[in-house]
Every structure is written in C-alpha cells, then in structure tokens.
Amino acid sequence: MQPYRNLIGGEWVGTSGVMNINPSDTGDVVGEFARATEADTLDAIAAARAAFPAWSSTTPATRGTILRSASTLLMARREELGTQLSREEGKTLAEGIGEVTRAAQIFDFFAAETQRLAGESLASVRPGIEVTVTREPLGVVGIITPWNFPMAIPAWKIAPALCHGNAVVFKPAELVPASAWSLVSVLQESGLPAGVLNFVNGPGSVVGNTLVNDPRVDGISFTGSVATGQRIVVAAASRFGKVQLEMGGKNPLVVLDDADLDIAVDCAVNGAYFSTGQRCTASSRLIVTRGIHDRFVDALIRRLEQLTVGHALHEGTEVGPVVNDSQLASNLTYIDVGKAEGAHLAFGGEVLERLTPGYFMVPALFTGATNDMRIAREEIFGPVACVIEARDFEEALHLANDTEYGLASGICTTSLKMASVYRQKAQAGMVMVNLPTAGVDFHVPFGGRKRSSYGPREQGRAAAEFYTSIKTAYTLP
Length: 477
Known about the structure:
Elements: E1 6-8, E2 11-13, E3 17-22, E4 25-34, H1 38-56, H2 60-76, H3 78-89, H4 93-113, E5 120-123, E6 130-137, E7 140-144, H5 152-163, E8 167-171, H6 177-189, E9 197-199, H7 204-213, E10 219-223, H8 226-238, E11 242-246, E12 252-255, H9 261-273, E13 285-289, H10 290-306, H11 325-341, E14 344-347, E15 351-352, E16 360-361, E17 364-369, H12 374-377, E18 384-390, H13 393-401, E19 405-406, E20 408-412, H14 416-425, E21 430-433, E22 449-450, E23 453-454, H15 464-467, E24 468-475
Parallel strand pairs: 7-8, 7-10, 8-9, 10-11, 12-13, 12-20, 13-18, 17-18, 20-21
Antiparallel strand pairs: 1-2, 3-4, 5-6, 6-24, 11-23, 14-17, 15-16, 19-22
C-alpha cells in the first residue's frame, strides 16, 4: 500500500508508515501514513520559518482567495471526505459529512475575516502625536489536534492562523491522519505557497515535543488532554512561547422540575451519547431535580432502548463505534468503577457484536450517582453518563459548578428567570439553555474555564487574540 506522505516545504516526503484502521470494521485499512521523525519536524519548522516573511506580507485579498477556494473545495467534496472521516474515526456518516461542512464554513468565515483586519487610530494625551494600534502575525504556529474531530478542529486552528498571516506546522492525532491529510491537500490545491503549511504526522513524544520546545515556533495551539496540556504550557513558558490550550470537560446538564420533558431527553441523548460521547463538550453529568427525576430517567431509558448502535457508514446508525480498543477498554473500566462506587447501572454498558468486527458498546446510564464519585469527576470520553439527583435549583447549580472543569454547562427549564440566573452563575465558558451542551457555532468564541482551557479563545473574531500580536505606534508628524 502506497503511504500517504508528510508535507514539508511544499514536498510530500516520508515512507515508513502507520496503519489507519476503521473502528467499525477492524479488517478495513483506511490507509498507511508516513510517520515523521524529529528531523522531519525540524525541517518543517525551518520551512515554515522561511515561508513566513513572504506569506505575512501578502495582501488580505490573496489570503482570502486561498481560504475561500479551500472552503469551496471542501463543500464540493463533503460527502467523499465525510465518508472518509466516519470511516477512520467512527462517528456516523451524517456527523462526518456535517463536520466537513463545518470545516468549509470555518474557512469561508476566515476568508471574509481577512478583509476585516482592522486597527485603531487614537488621539494621544500629548498634543500633536498620532497613536495607531495594529495587529501583526504571531509568526510560526505549531498546531496539535486530537482524534475526535479530525477535520473541524484542525480547520478552526489552521484557518485563523493563515488568515492572520502566520506559517503553520500541523501535527494531527496519529489515530486519524486521513482527514488531516485531505484537509492539507485541499489547501495545497487552493494555491497555498510552499512552506506556509507543513504536515507532520507522528507521535506526540517526538513531533509534539519538538514543536513545543523549538524556539523558532512562536506559538502552540493544542487540543487534547489536561495532562498533556500541562506539560506543554510548562515547556513553552520556559522559552516564552505563546500557548492556547483546549482540554477536558465534565459538563453538566441541569434538568429542572418545570422542564419540557421531551426537550430535556433530547438534549441529554444528543449531548451525552451522539458522536459516541467522544466530545469534550459532552454532557456526562445529568443533574436532575427531585420533582422530575423519575419521569426523566424513565423517558431517557426508553429513548436509549431505541438507539441504533452500529457501523458508522450504515444507514440508520445513530451511535457508531468507540474509536479504538484502548478507549473501549477505558470505558468498560469506568463502568466497573461506577458500579463499585455504588451507582446503579440503569442501562447499557455492554460490548456489542455486529456483522463486522469493531469497537461497539451499548451507551451506558448510571443513576443514584453522587458528585464525589469518579464517574462524576473524571472525563470518561465515551458514551457513559450519570444522573445525579438534586433537591432544587440552588443545589443543582452548586453541583453543576462543583467540578475542576468549566467548558460547557446546560440547563433545561421553561422559567426565563431560572435560565437567566443559570447563565450568569454557571462557571463555564459556554452555557446552553434548552439545547445540548455539545452544539456550538463556528463564528463565535469557543473555550472554557478552570482546567478546560488556557489562553485566548478559539474561533470567530476572538481567534485574533492568539494568532496576532498587538503593536502600538506613536508618531510625531
């Protein structure tokens, strides 16, 4: 099998490969991908550094044209690339196509954003002096992305980086390199100059560490685990590199007595179990007040009984496989942990067999959980949720905020007053009312608090805070 190669300085290089396996059918090899070495990564950084001066000097129109072309190509190929994405990651075909569509929308947004790179002209406090405030590209940016959104997350990092005139070295998750490779290929086809975007697929211990520690890399944008994020921020800070981190979540969905039951169940199923629960914004803690608790649990179990778990590409599948064997093993370990802690496994949690060999499991629901249990404190990153009963709104709010994380927080209620109070007091970067915690738009800021995020926000106009540096200039005409 001919390997898909790395892109360094405009050339596709590398031979030794890593096999990319379909989690819906482990006998299906998506492709063989070259593995970058430390030397490859150093070459990619050098190529980005060499390409940066010319790229940062291009006109906004030039950058906008390339980004818009990429958007158009992604949209035209969304079914093909969405199928590839679902084949390598395991989310349903509809979710895969939707993710590619989102990537196209992100590039379209930042194509327009190139025309809106505004500054300020201010009057000085001293007579006769002009003051201007402008933004300049950060420089060379190392982008490190996770496996759960192999097209959308790279897009929402790469698009603003290029929009603002930066050069990029991009390391995707080794588990899902096909979508990343396709995205890079689309940008090359769109006319991106050699060296502006470099693609190095390889282990974090080699490629990631090299990027993080190299002084020629001006900034690191990372999405992944808290433990890795901590190591990155320490290493980058030691050389004064700029850092943007998006990490874990243990997101609450509060359901009050006055909630519309159908809406609440839909929010819980979507937020906790779609994309196989493999989202940092998944609502894995369902905090339900006493008056609606039993009705909510009964209705949720009835809905879970109707979910179709199966091959990601098969029609009718609502929940695909877990991404790989180690993630499946981790999920099953947490099932055992929850039972040992005294929570009641009210539904699911078993391994499933399907026509093809894959990593399938029945979505799991615990009841009788408390907020001090590991299943309520630690990010499981799978189709596992727990119900925590609360006396009233005040206790529910306290439980929702009682976590080390602060990415997303949701509430289901028909009370405008309770919704308003919750929006104000929820300790999270994003708050949803009568909506799943996992649904976000591409043109507004994304990020959280506490251990969920560190540094400037991602997406929308807020992305400029990371990908640019501010310059204040004083002139005496």
